[in-house]
Every structure is written in C-alpha cells, then in structure tokens.
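To whoever picks this up:

The parser on our side crashed when reading a file containing two proteins. I've narrowed it down to the boundary between the first structure block and the second sequence. Both blocks are reproduced below exactly, byte for byte. First block:
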Amino acid sequence: MSGLGLADPERENALLTGIIEAISAGPELGPLAASVARLIVAATATDICFVHVLDDSDGALTLAGATPPFDCQVGRVRLALGEGVSGWVASRHQPAVIAEHKEADPRYRYFPELGGPGYTSMASVPMASRPAGLVGVLNVHTRQRRDFTDRDVRLLTSIGSLVAGAMHQARLHRRLAAREQAAERFAEQVIAAQEAERQRLAGDIHDGITQRLVSLAYHLDAAVAALPPDEVAARELRRARELTDLTLNEAHAAIWGLRPPVLEDLGLADGLASLARSIAQVPVTVTGTDCRLPEHVEIALYRIAQEALQNVVKHAQASLAEVELRCDASRTTLRVSDNGQGFDLAARPGDETSYGLRSMAERAELVGGRLTVASRPGLGTSVTATVPGRSSR
C-alpha cells in the first residue's frame, strides 16, 4: 500500500480547517499536540501518530501528543537529540522513512511503551518553521507495510511547518507559566520565612522581655509596700511601676503586631477589622467585601494595611482613617486613607515614612502587585495596593 491519500481537496481542506481550529483553541501545548496527532491519523489513513516536542533546554524530545492507545504515555517518553529515529530527525533536520524491518535500522530504538513491534512502516519529519526553528518531530506509523513517497514526506513536512509556529508559542506559554509558578512559590517561601521570623521574635519577647517586666513589677510593688507612702523613694518607685506597666503594654502590643489573627480562620476582611479595632489612637473604619486569596497574598495585604495604619498613628495627626478592601475577577484592591496632615513625597526622601512606603511597595511587588501613594500637605494620604486576581482557596 502506498500514498497518504490526501489527493482529495476536501480531505486536505478538512485537515487544514482542523489544524487551524486546534491552533485557535488555546495556548496549552498538550491539547494542541493531541489534536494535531488525531487530525493527522484521520487525514492520512495511518494508524498512530506521535508528536515529540523539544524540551525547554532544546537538548531532548518529550512525547507531547499521541493517538490512543498511546496517549497515556504523553510526558513519560523522553529521548535525547540523536537518540532513536526521532532524535536522528531532530538532530539532522531531515525526514526519515522506514518501510519495514525497523529493528534492522541503526537509527531505531525500541520503546516498549510505544508498541514498536506492532507497526511495520513509519515516516518521521521535523516540525520546523523559519521564525520558530526546530520545534519537534512528527511521526506516523502503519501496521501494514507502506511505501511513503516523496510527496507523502513533503505533505507531512508541510503539516509540521504549519503547526511549528503554534507549537513554539505553546512552548513559550509553558515556560512563562512555569516562571510564574516559580515566582509565586518564591513569594510564598519569602513571606513564610518573614512570618516565621516574626513568630520567633514574638516568642522571644513574650518569654523573655515580658516575663522580666512582670517580675520587675512584682519587685517594685514589694519595695513600695515596704516604704512609707510619702517618702521620695516610694514616689519614684510608684513612677517606675507606671513606666513598667506602660512598657509591658507596649510589649504586648508588639507581640500582637508580630502575631496577627490567623487569616486562615478569619479571612482577610475580618483580619483587617480586627487590626482596625487594635488601633486605639485613631478611629478606623473597614469597608468592602471579603475575598479569599492565597494565604501568602492575604498576609502581604494584611502587613501592608498594618504598616499604613502605623504610619497614620505616628505621622498623620489624623482624626479618622479608613481601610477599604475590594475584589473582582481581575484584581484585589486594598486602600488605607486618612484625613491627616498629608505630606510631600518628593520632599521627604530617606525618612521613616519613606522607609515604610518602600517596605509596603516591596510587599506588593513580591506578590505580583503594585503600590500607589497619593498625598498632599493638608489633604491627607491614601495608600493603595493592587494585586492580580487569584483563584480562591
């Protein structure tokens, strides 16, 4: 038997239309390779088709698409350039045809999972295009002997060239997705490390400083009780006792700041509400709706709100502050604003406020977002963190 049987224009048009639809379906490499394999088998009256794609190192081929029953082997079969017939085609950028006795061909390598002995003839062509270069290798196999003609090889090569650009874009999309996942994992690890260090510091303060302050308070109480109330020493000891209580309260506040409410249980909106209630110096209102985000993103937004409110308390001289949380499909926005004295950003480089703003900006950037600040002297300040929309947990 010879010829691929694509002389019928209707079959050629059906193949081209199917390939265009497969390319247009989306940027994922796996579905594209699987669709191309099915289309080629249907159009060429071959029995199976394998689509091998160069990996990201360009040093090996990975099975990216196959027709049943070998579709279960996708992602599992890998061969280096120059290895097997497909590796030979990839390294030489030349087609290869074997009509029979594959095992006798020095280029052939047996893959038990791909059922080689059950298929007699094969044609293997490079998938390449001028802008994309070599992308992979396209193989077709038949159970019965078939003499693949030059026209057959040219047709398969043309098909390979047609899909090479789309395969190249799919590879780039896969690389980009992998980088985004790596960046998100890095952000998770950084934030987890920051929170672990905060937990350690909170534990050190609680187990060390606060316990010593409590012990100091007991000793001061005992010393005051042992002296006449009107003596100067007693008055100074009572003053020291008041300072001890003040320092103890500040230590407790520091511990609470280092160990916020568990966002996993409360959610970001309730965590922000709890944060607002902890600010005694300025009334803080919280508006918006809750939206569950990845834990490291919620922690980053919580810390941004915490830093912004600390700036309000320390610098704004405000009588009111507001925390607003808004979510939609594309982004989550956190805004902390106040009616305080405001400031000129350009006129205050390097001061404590600028340091706090840099810290908030770094947190936003770490989770793929950005921070904007709007402030004018006498007109208050607004700090807005915007992060890309993420799927809920």
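<<boundary where parser fails>>
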Amino acid sequence: MTPHFRPAGRDQTVAIACVLGLTLYNNVIGAQPWHRRWYTPVNAGAAGVALAAAAASGLTAADLGFGRGRWLPGRLGSLLSAATAAGWLAAAALPAARPVLHDKRITGLDGRGVAYQTLVRIPVGTVLWEEVAFRGVLQAALLRVMSEPAAIAVSSGVFGLWHIRPTAAALRVNGLADGRRRAVAGVAAGVAVTTAGGAALSWLRARSGRLAAPVLLHLAINCGGLAAAWAATTRDRREDGGR
C-alpha cells in the first residue's frame, strides 16, 4: 500500500526536508567522532525520530510498509535474501573469489567483534536506521508528491549520496585512494553501486508492500558480506601460517 498521490505544499516540504536531512546526516553527522563511538544507539534513536516525524506529517504505518499483516518479509523478500546469502557463501568458499572479499576493516576483528557487528551494529545501527529512513519514511514521503518510478529514483540517488563519506573512508583504509583522481573515481563508483543497490531495495519495497522485505535483503547483503570477508581472511591466514 502506498500513499495517495496528492501534491500539496506541506507534503512537498516534508519530502524536501527528508531529502536534505538524509543527504547531510551520514556525510556530516556521521563524520563526527562521537557518532562513530555511539553509532548504534545514535542511529537507533534517529530511526525513532524519523518515525515520529513521519507520524506527525500524517504518514501511517501502512504507508511506511509495516501495517497490519505486513510484518514478515514475504516470499519475494525471503527468496532474494536466501539467494544473496548463498552467493556470499559461494564467494567465501571459492579461492579465486577471496581476493575480492579482502577488506582491512575486517582484519582486526576477532570472533567476538564479528558477532557484535553482525548481530547488533549492522542490524540496528545500519539496516534498521537506513531502511526506516529510506524505504520507509523517505519513499513514503516522496510518493505523496511524485509518481512511484520518480520516488524510487530520487530515494535511490539520495541513498547513493549517503554513502560518499563511508566509501571514501573505505578506500583510504584499503589503500585505494592514492591521488585525487583515483579517490574521486572510487567514490563515484561507490555512489553508483549504492544507488543501484538502493534502487533494488526501493523496488522490492514497492513490489512487496512490506518494509520487512528490503530489511531482510539488506541484512543478507551487509551481514553476509562481512561474514564472507572475515571467513576468507581467516582462511587465508591459516593457509599462510601453514606454509
């Protein structure tokens, strides 16, 4: 179920505020040391604020994708999530694919750190917050002032811009940002990839009518990717140590 298409001054203001707020949040607030330290509770709180603001603007639970009977991901969301998890498993198992999974941000994690990331930080601090913000509040707000394809395009573009700072940070950590041109190209590629990912999640939200569907797929992508990278790194360490 989607909000009724009804252009209005207040609805346009809410949509613009959502776009600007989300574009700035991860690239400005997310860059602050206190946010990195309190990442999970701050983002969980932001999700609560976003839901409260959505309710105040007149958006209902059904508009946001978790109305009555919509709490489960449904068949399509479950199938896509299972396929994604299987893909990560195959990548971790294939020696030829392991170099692609290497990420220095994972290198320092032990089993406890991986468990915290996959069970707490990513599900609550990343997936819950991003899905509530983008596929929940933003997409619903945009649907009040534009068509569904346009809403998906805008929300996906904002999702790509949201990842400018994290992409730049990941490139620096992995030594892939040597030189301004290379750094800009890497960030542009990262934004393009996350925009495409956002489009897929937004499409799934629209197709299923459930916020739980993109939530589950997002979990499979992020948690599965981290687990696969850690498994590949751990296996390579063991093999190197045995030589």
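After patching the parser it read the second block fine. The chain has one domain: 9-241. The chain has a mean pLDDT of 89.
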